[in-house]
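User: Fold this one for me? It's LysR family transcriptional regulator.
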Amino acid sequence: MPTHRNEPLAQVSDFDLRLLRVFRAVVECGGFSAAETVLGIGRSAISQQMADLEQRLGLRLCQRGRAGFVLSEEGREVYQLSLRLLGALESFRSEVNGLHQHLRGELHIGLTDNLVSMPRMRITHALAQLKKQGAQVQIHLRMATPPEVEQGVLDGRLQVGVVPQAAPLAGLEYQPLYDERSLLYCAVGHPLFYVDDEQLDDERLDSLDAIAPTFRLPAEVQAHYQRLSCTASASDREGIAFLILTGCYIGYLPDHYAWAWVQQGRLRALKPATRFYDLNLVSVTRKGRRPNLVLERFLQALAATA
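Assistant: Here's what I get for LysR family transcriptional regulator.
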């Protein structure tokens, strides 16, 4: 028979919680036999678990025998305490689940320029899904060059970014998002604008004034620029477009970004069957980042758009 203990209960384990749930069911059913159906276990197992709980607490919780099931005074107090404890656990569970349903917080995202014209709109759809899940989420979007986006993620000013894939930086994680094709363009007013592709040879193209990007690119993409005569440079794709539209330079632009100018008759692609490169755009997050529900929901929404 359990005896009173002077030492306090050191901790409440998962095993203790299971025993307290059995105890609650027994009390509310009015005895061991009636609790069998509710708990889905036999009377002997219930009896053993009750004995374990009494041993654990050092208290006699009930009388059981021919006279029936009767709570002791201490058993009544433990029952009330167990209701408060188990109720608090259920409240905790419900409120944590509520956090998943009612997102709060901020998302700081950095994007390289001119992704909004991508036909698949994965980023736009993911941001819309995030806002749908959490109306109170505040989204802060910063447009920056790829190095600025990566640095912002590294130093914590940004939680996530989207950049062209290049050599990975230590401390960052990259996930593929888009495949993007870039073509070689010139603008109306350039000497080649009205020259048929059949009359264009690569040697002539490689000798003309061209624009080089200053952001990092994979080695296989850099090779396309190394063959050109790059006499100008730009930190982003909008800058490249500005220079091409002067009619003085040729340069590579993503086809989705150049499309509107092509439709207006202001740009044309030069030998698009051979003068192109494909580039992956990736999402970037910091390795070892602290858990953040808003960020994780955005990344989940981004992955679901694939």
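One thing worth pointing out: The radius of gyration is 34 Å.
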